[in-house]
Amino acid sequence: MAYTEIVITRFGDHLVSMLLKDGHPVEFQCVSEKNKVDIGNIYIGIVKNVVKNINGAFVEFDQDEIGFLSMRHRQYKAGDEVLVQIKKEATEEKRPMLSDQIELTGKYLVLTSDKLSVGISNKIHQKEKKQELKEMAEPLVTQEYGFILRTEAAKADKEDVLMEADQLSAKYHEIVSKRQYRKAPHLVDTNYDALEVLVHDIKPGSIDRIVTDQEEVGEQLKEKGYEVFLCSYMAGDIERRYRFRHYLSEVFKRKIFMKSGGFLYIEQTEAMAVIDVNTGKSIGKKNQEAHIKKINLEAAKEAARQIRLRNLSGIIMIDFIDMKSKDDEKELLQVMQHYLNGDSKKAVAVDITKLGIMEITRKKEKNPIFRQISIDILK
């Protein structure tokens, strides 16, 4: 099993963490101390405007804070009060994405009012365990909410899972009841834990150690049961040992070179992320097709790494080098999915189009890293 380590430091008014597997960075997380709008927060909002042609409404969920709410579950009119939860951060072009379907996340379970059923984490593969968990959770489902069993539930005692279900249910009813006597707009619950974000939602016992030069953060993590090593911020210990600034600056680069001499060109637009694979100086003189396949397979691994490092999400298009063999294309799609399976977010290699472009979808919550933090802070 890979040696897992998390390094946490500060850049300006941002706390940034780097997840490493056997010394290699695989993911960054960023928490802004200025940002008051956090994913997961629940508000009583007031509908300001309804846009019928897109079946949505603009809701003031906090003082002078407006978000977009899809009306696929229920129709609203201006002046209605509605319980909403932030699902996606605002971007330069779009307001925060809201939902009237509430989710409460625990260690073992997610309570959700979106589906009145039992869901099981895709990372639980044993059929017998999945059936056992489903049978345990089905009696917990009500006419108001259902449950999703997280990966940790497979290793937990039944009593602990059921206890958490009771706690989440009580919290849900408390949140719903507040709607009756609080005036909109109003923050009802902060279902957001900055420490959980910084530890990449990894529980104590599943990580070898955390290294930080932020004393307060370190002490809080120790209280939660993590193995924490404190070092000096003023002495620059983290930069000297881990080259944090170097690895973080990589997510701002458009051009990423591979060992073969080929390279990836990465571009993020408002609609999608685009990755272009190029042979560069890598030229196969003998078997051209085998050489192209080799570069594409190398590019698939690096693309999956960059997608997670940069937190690219939504629709991702990868323009691989054209291959004549359909079997090679099929293999490339399977290999890509294999690498995506190691991601902390759900990511799917959907298809390869007739133009040879691979379509990928990845669950979108927070903005790409380069939009969460400025490269100027790293200089």
Automatic annotation (TrEMBL):
It comes from the Bacteria. GO terms for biological process: rRNA processing. InterPro entries: NA-bd_OB-fold, RNA-bd_AU-1/RNase_E/G, RNase_E/G, S1_domain. Gene3D superfamilies: Nucleic acid-binding proteins. One of its GO terms (molecular function) is endonuclease activity. Keywords: Cell inner membrane, Cell membrane, Endonuclease, Hydrolase, Magnesium, Membrane, Metal-binding, Nuclease, RNA-binding. One of its GO terms (cellular component) is cytoplasm. SMART domains: S1. Its cofactor is Mg(2+). PANTHER family: RIBONUCLEASE, RIBONUCLEASE E_G-LIKE PROTEIN, CHLOROPLASTIC. This is RNA-binding protein.
